[in-house]
């Protein structure tokens, strides 16, 4: 009888240890159901505010004391050189954010302006400021979300810069008229990016 009781106690101890080990291992597992671990979106970025190069539709961007939702994104490709533009919206107010990685990361806040008589030239004058032509060309693009642009196509652009650092850009697709925007460079630390969807 004593041997039977010892065997039962020993078996119970083995079961308890096995359950404890299984619980400990499950707490160390990659994720529920063995799925890949969720990644901290800020972990490997240059800034604790998030990586602007990973902005996508549905993300929320905190900028100048307001939260902006990314309504749409456009990816440009000019013979292998790539950049992106994102349409930000907050209660009907909209602006564009361009993200360009050349020698360094460059972010620009763009605002469309009404300038029906303004045309690309070597220099253009807007709001009493002279802008000098910096670059012009054509690039292929693909859009997603709400952008007001076709899903894909080609864009013609003319980019200008003023002595005070402000930027001006002409863009048009196909045979449409030029859209004019004025831009101001901003530091990446001026915004915080909250991913809208899980990776």
Describe the secondary structure blueprint for this structure.
Elements: H1 2-28, E1 60-63, E2 66-78, E3 81-90, E4 93-101, E5 105-113, E6 123-126, E7 129-145, E8 152-161, E9 167-173, E10 179-186, E11 191-194
Antiparallel strand pairs: 1-2, 1-11, 2-3, 2-7, 3-4, 4-5, 5-10, 6-7, 7-8, 8-9, 9-10
Task: Summarize the structure in words.
This protein is mostly beta strands. The protein has two domains: 2-34; 55-194. It contains one helix and eleven strands, in the order αβββββββββββ. Strands 2-3-4-5-10-9-8-7 form an eight-stranded antiparallel β-barrel. The longest helix has 27 residues, at 2-28. The N and C termini lie far apart (59 Å). Mean pLDDT is 81; it is low at 1-34 and 42-46.
Output mean pLDDT. 81
How helical, in percent, are the residues? 10-25%
Low-confidence stretches: 1-34, 42-46
Number of strands: 11
> What gyration radius follows from the Cα positions, in whole Å?
27 Å
Total domain count: 2
Q: Which structural class is indicated by helix and strand composition?
A: mainly beta
What is the H/E string? HEEEEEEEEEEE
What general outline do the C-alpha atoms trace? globular
Subunit organisation of the chains: single chain
- Report the major sheet: 8 strands, antiparallel, barrel
* Proportion of residues in extended strands: over 45%
- Strand arrangement across the biggest beta sheet: 2-3-4-5-10-9-8-7
């Amino acid at each position: 009888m004593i041997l039977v009781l010892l065997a039962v106690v020993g078996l119970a101890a083995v079961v308890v240890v096995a359950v404890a080990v299984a619980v400990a291992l499950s707490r160390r597992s990659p994720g529920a159901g063995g799925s890949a671990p969720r990644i901290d979106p800020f972990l490997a970025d240059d800034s604790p505010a998030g990586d602007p190069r990973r902005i996508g539709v549905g993300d929320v961007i905190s900028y100048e004391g307001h939260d902006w939702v990314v309504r749409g994104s456009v990816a440009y490709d000019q013979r292998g050189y790539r950049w992106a533009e994102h349409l930000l919206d907050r209660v009907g107010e909209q602006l564009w954010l361009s993200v360009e990685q050349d020698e360094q990361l460059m972010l620009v806040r763009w605002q469309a302006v009404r300038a029906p008589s303004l045309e690309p030239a070597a220099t253009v004058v807007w709001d009493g400021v002279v802008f000098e032509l910096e670059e012009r060309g054509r690039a292929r693009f693909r859009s997603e979300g709400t952008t007001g642009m076709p899903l894909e196509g080609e864009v013609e652009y003319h980019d200008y810069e003023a002595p005070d650092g402000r930027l001006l850009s002409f863009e048009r697709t196909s045979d449409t008229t030029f859209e004019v925007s004025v831009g101001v460079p901003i530091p990446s630390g001026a915004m915080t990016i909250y991913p809208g969807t899980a990776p």
